[in-house]
């Protein structure tokens, strides 16, 4: 590679740490995920399981396909995560009217773990909201909604 081509690529690469939205979103996501996971630890849940349980609770019985679409996840990932919840005894999977469709609902244990997790989620939400302040909190939610509209 010529020196001028290397220098041009190097100049671009030096902008990445300060300006790459993907890098900053991934970093922020890891930090926030850690905060939620720590708060939810007493329940045995991590935040992605918590949000999946919430979605199932709100729409149950719900198909795995619909859950994947609602959560902007691919079908394989949604199925794998739901199987983990089933293994914990927190959800039940049953065939729909069309046997190809699998419907998910919370078990009694799933309802109990969700009930235990909701106040912990509220607490970490309040802490994060206080940290950012109401104006930045709302602005961040708004910007993230715009990002998800890109899909």
TrEMBL record:
Organism for this UniProt entry: Nostoc minutum NIES-26
Domain spans labelled HTH marR-type: 18-149
Transcription among keywords: yes
Protein name as it appears in the record: MarR family transcriptional regulator
Gene Ontology MF term list: DNA binding; DNA-binding transcription factor activity
Signal peptide residue numbers: none
PANTHER family: TRANSCRIPTIONAL REGULATOR, MARR (PTHR42756), TRANSCRIPTIONAL REPRESSOR OF EMRAB OPERON (PTHR42756:SF1)
Gene3D superfamilies given in the database record: Winged helix-like DNA-binding domain superfamily/Winged helix DNA-binding domain (1.10.10.10)
Keywords per UniProt: DNA-binding, Transcription, Transcription regulation
Pfam families: MarR_2 (PF12802)
